[in-house]
């Protein structure tokens, strides 16, 4: 499983700190394709090709684009992934349950909820002295 992100170099470190499972060493995501680093932006088909190459490198055998599922909240990005040959899901107001249902419809079952490590929520000091 990997990430394709159009985040800019200012946003990415903040997002990564907010959601520790996005860290490269979290064990959740095998690869990251980042616009700010890889100089490609969705919906450019080359970004999907780069992600597919990384997915192939991480897999135990050869993959076909149709064996990959891309999830995004922008229709133009979903259409581009489909044009590349990936299966794709448009994330909408149905939220994570809708995504899980769409994945199940594609034959992709999610691991149990306790598979992932619990998120680490950074402790933010209170602006009021003496309050933790």
UniProtKB/TrEMBL annotation:
Gene3D superfamilies: HAD superfamily/HAD-like. InterPro entries: HAD-like_sf, HAD-SF_hydro_IA, HAD_sf. Transmembrane segments: none annotated. This is Uncharacterized protein.
């Amino acid at each position: 499983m990997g990430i394709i992100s159009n985040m800019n170099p200012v946003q990415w470190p903040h997002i990564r700190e907010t959601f520790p499972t996005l860290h490269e060493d979290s064990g959740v995501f095998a690869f990251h394709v980042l616009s700010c680093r890889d100089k490609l932006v969705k919906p450019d088909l080359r970004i999907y090709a780069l992600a597919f190459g990384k997915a192939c490198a991480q897999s135990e055998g050869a993959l076909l684009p149709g064996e990959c599922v891309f999830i995004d909240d922008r229709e133009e990005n979903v259409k581009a992934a489909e044009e590349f040959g990936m299966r794709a899901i448009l994330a909408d107001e149905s939220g994570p349950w809708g995504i899980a249902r769409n994945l199940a419809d594609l034959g992709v079952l999610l691991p149990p909820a306790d598979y992932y490590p619990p998120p680490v929520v950074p402790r933010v000091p209170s602006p009021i002295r003496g309050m933790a």
